[in-house]
Amino acid sequence: MDILTGLMIWAAEALTLAALLCSRWYYERDRFYLSWGGGFALHGIGVILVALRGDIPDFISIQIANTLVLGGVGLWIAGLLQFDRKPVEAYIAIPALLWVAGMFLYPVRENFANRVALHNVATMVGHAIMIYILLRNNGASKMTRRVLATFLAVQFCANGVVAVLVVAGEAKSIGVSPHSAWLLFPAAICFIASIMTGAKLLTERSEEKLKTLAVTDPLTGVLNRRGLIDQFHALRKLENEEKPLIALLHFDLDNFKQINDRCGHQAGDSVLVAFSQVGQTSMRSRGFFGRMGGEEFASILRVGDMIEAASIAEAIRLTLKRQTIVAGEHNITVTVSAGIALAGAGTADLDLLLSAADRALYTAKDSGRDRTAIDTGTEASIVPAVDRQGEDEAPTDVRASRQVAALKRLASLGKR
After folding, report:
1. Residues 6 or more apart in contact with residue 276 via CB below 8 angstroms
2. Is the pLDDT of residue 209 over 90?
C-alpha cells in the first residue's frame, strides 16, 4: 500500500468517526461530542486534500489542507475541555495559528521539508496541550486518562522525529520521501490506539453518569433515598473522633398540597427545587442532603453533639421561612418542619434513626408546624426557636442572647 492510499484510508476512518460522534451529540447534546466530531471532520477533509496534491491547486492542498488538519486538533482540545466541564480557551487555536504564521515566511512556504517540519511542530504543540489537560484531572478515569496521554506522548515524539528527519534528509515530496513511513504508520498506530482509549473514556463516563442518575433525584438534583442510604454507610465508616455521632434530620414541607392546589404543580416543583438548594447550601461539606420522596427531605451528617444537629436543622428551617420563592406570577413563602435523631456512628442503625426522626417530625407537626423537634430516646422534644420570641422587633444583640439561651435549653434536653 502506497502512502497516498494510506492517507485516503486514514481520512475515511476520520470522517466515519466524525459522523458517529455528531450522531451521538444529536441524541445526547453533550458539546464535547460535537467538538470531537468536528475535529475528526476537519482532520479527514484536510487529509483528503493533502492526498489530492497535484490534482488540485497547491494553495488548497497545502495551506488550506494543513490549516484544516490543525484546526481539527484545536477542536479535539476544545472537546477535552468540555469533557472536563471547563470553559473553552482561545489557546485551542495555537496549532492552526502556528501553521498560518509559518506560511507567511518564504523559506517555510516554498520548501517541502520545512513545511512538514512546521506541521509536525504545530501538531506537537496540540498534543502537548491535550496531554496537559488529561493529566491535570485526578478525578474519575484517572488510569484511562494516563493511558491516552501516553499514546499522545508517543505520537508527540514521533512528530518530533519526523520533523528532524525530513529537514535533515531534505525531503522533496511526501510520496518519494525516504521517511514516508515515518510520516504515516507510527501516527496511524497511535491514532487508532488513542481512539480506542478515548472510547473507553466515554464508556467510563457513561457508567459514572448512570451511577449518578441512580442515586440522584431528577427534579431537584439532590440525592434520592438510595443515595442517602449509600452515604449513611459511608459516614458510619468515617473515623472522626471530634464528631462521634450520626444525625438524621428529617424535613417535611408544611401544607405543600395547598401550594400545589392553589398555585399549580409547576409552582410546587419550584418550591421543591428552592428548598433543595437551601438544604444543599446549608450542608456545605458537613454532610449530605437528599429528597426522600414527595415533599419529604433528609440530611445525614456527622456531628459532635445534639446542639450542632439542632443548629443546622434550625438554620435550614429559618432560611427557607425567610425566603420568597418566585414561581411565575406567584410569590410563595413556605415553612418546613424537622425531626432529628442521633446515634453513635459505630452502632447507628438506619431504620432506627428513621423511626426516631419520624417520631420527632410528627411531634413538630402536631405542635403547630414550622418547628424542629429532637428525639431524646424516651420522648421527642421541641427545639427552642428564636423566631418565636419576638426577635423581629428586638435589636441584634438581644436576638443573639436569645439564641444562646435557646441553645442552653436545648443542651439540657440531652442531659435528661
Report:
1. 217, 220, 221, 222, 289, 291, 297
2. no
